[in-house]
Amino acid sequence: MKTKKKQKSNNYFDKSAQDAILKFQHEPDLKKKKQIFVNEIQPAFSKLIENIIFVYKFHTLGNVNILKNDCLSFLFENIYKFDGDKGHKAFSYFNVIAKHWFIQQVKTYKKKNRSDIQFDKTLLSKLEKSENVAVVTSYENDLIRTEFLLLLKDEIKKWRDRFDKQQERVVLEAVILLLENPDLVSIYNKKGIYLYIREITGLNTKQVVTNLSKLRKKYNIFKKKYLAGEV
Questions:
Q1: Disulfide-capable partner of 13 in 44, 145, 174, 196 (CB 3.0 to 4.6 Å)?
Q2: Which residues of 81-92 are buried (b: 16+ CB within 10 A; e: fewer)?
Q3: Number of domains comprising the chain
Q4: Mutual orientation of helices 166-180 and 131-158 as an angle, nearest 10°?
């Protein structure tokens, strides 16, 4: 049953959609590019956006049709950034950046609400105890965690040029692999993660710990910048 659901969820964005994106990138004729987008790419993008709005309940942000159109424009602008030569799947790539776009809208929405509405402290204290607010708070925290993870993944990939030693590089690549493939991890604790990295890199525990400590320093710097709103 689970397998059928997975196939059903993204069969609208299959290899033909990815091929259309690559064809669009290399087509010099503007009229033909438009036809490729409208007929072959836009339907996949639209369905992807609808699924994201449904799954993550982004419809609470306001006018859904405006959000859909704005996100579609954003995906269109990012078509040229997709690099099929790296072996990435177009569905995964555009799914991530579309979710990231919606998360940014959530942050903007929250900032606007904070500036437009001044809550009485006593009233706010009472509201926070209610079940509905607890659910909303949990939902927003989930979105913040998702955004942080997306930004962290992008940041860590930039570190590839900042480590020269072989052990540093293999540990970094192992971390990137685990972040991009969370399904590979079945034990989410410190000891379990060390074990996975040891198996991937072939290094011993001491080597893994030593090189992870170097990554942790950069992680702490990034986290401080994120919390300070500098990222």
A1: 44
A2: ebeeeeeeebbe
A3: 1
A4: 150
